[in-house]
Amino acid sequence: MRTAQITRKTKETDIKTELYFDGKGTYEIETGIGFFDHMLTAFAVHSGISVKINVVGDLFVDAHHTVEDTGIVLGQAIAMALGNKANIKRYGNFTIPMDESLASCSMDISNRPFLVFNADFSDEKIGEYDTALTEEFFRALAFNAGITLHLNALYGKNSHHKTEALFKAFAYALKEAVTEKGQSNSTKGIVEIVRK
Fold this sequence. Notes:
The chain has one domain (about 5-175): Ribosomal Protein S5, domain 2 (2-Layer Sandwich), CATH 3.30.230.40. About 35% of the residues lie in helices and about 30% in strands. The protein starts with a strand and ends in a 19-residue tail after the last helix. A 4-stranded mixed sheet has the order 1-2-4-3, with helices on one face. Strands 5-6-10-7 form a 4-stranded mixed sheet, covered by helices on one side. The protein is of the alpha+beta class. It has 4 helices and 10 strands; from the N terminus they run E-E-E-H-E-H-E-E-E-E-E-H-E-H.
């Protein structure tokens, strides 16, 4: 059962997350930011990963803490649900068209976190969502999940379309990368880490 439940509470956010990799893309999502909910819903539906995410954040300040901390917790949940990552395909790559926009995602679930993010947005906000937070979300997720992640908005004009294409490309690439294959996909074998 590839599942995880995480609760994280700080002075800035209170987040409860449940994740089930082998679900059917069901979702219960409430972050207080409509467009961000829309993106997380797209992630769940297109990845096939069932998620529950409830966030109470300091939106009276701005959306930054809510979006970044959600990325942290979702990344931690992905890492927890995958365990030692021994039996997964590991690599994922997908390109998504969204009307005039095209975005690609390539990833390696390697425990070597890194983010390459190339996207320019013509709008500073989509509803109450700051477009600059897209990069912050994916950085937090990649570093907490242990993913080498490359995201590129190749072209497009509409900020909504470009952002949604990025989230959907990530969803499909992750769906591919976590496919179980019954053996380790690394010349190193399984890395055992002992913490005391």
